[in-house]
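Shipment paperwork, digital attachment
Item: protein structure file
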Amino acid sequence: MRSRAASAFTLIEVLLALALLASLLAAINHFVFSMTEASTKNRDRFVFAQHARAVTRHVDELLAAAAASARASSVSVGAPAAAELRLPEGGTADLLAFDLPVGDRLLTWPGRPLPEVRCGLDWRPEEGLVLYWKSRLESDFATAEPRLAVVSPFVTALSYDYYDDATKTWSNEAELQRNESGALLTPQRLRLQFARRGQVIEEIIPLPSTAQEGLPTY
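Attachment content:
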């Protein structure tokens, strides 16, 4: 009989193979986690950008509805304009005010919803972008504080753009401005700044009732 020599891997070859396999698995694991992290970051940026656009579009639609209602009214009441309004906690503040003829889905009524809702747009450090609101048809409209509805908690600043006809330039102001006689001046545009996890988005909303013919909105 002829004997056949059995061949086998040596211990060093086995250890080397295990080391290569471990390196391959680690590389695959790192690649998968990297792809997952990149996908999550991209999705987070996409969702945040969608939120900023949706909020901006909704505020723009509210202002447009108020302006359209004012144009249709014989007394033109309720168009977006700077005004002094009451605050929910008491006191007053200079805000961009407007009237919504049929309210809005953001407004949660304690009872039956009413039309002719007087609103004020504001930014609060704890809540973000908010609406103060109360119907003109409520019996305590002249005396009671308005309600508060949060529009977006991710808005970190609300500012106002004014156009100077004399210099043909824009200026951005943190607060509503007054003229020399002390009357409030309605801005031509609003600026909303959104921020979340290091991402910052700024949106501009032109005011429909104050834009002049031929005035640039950029």
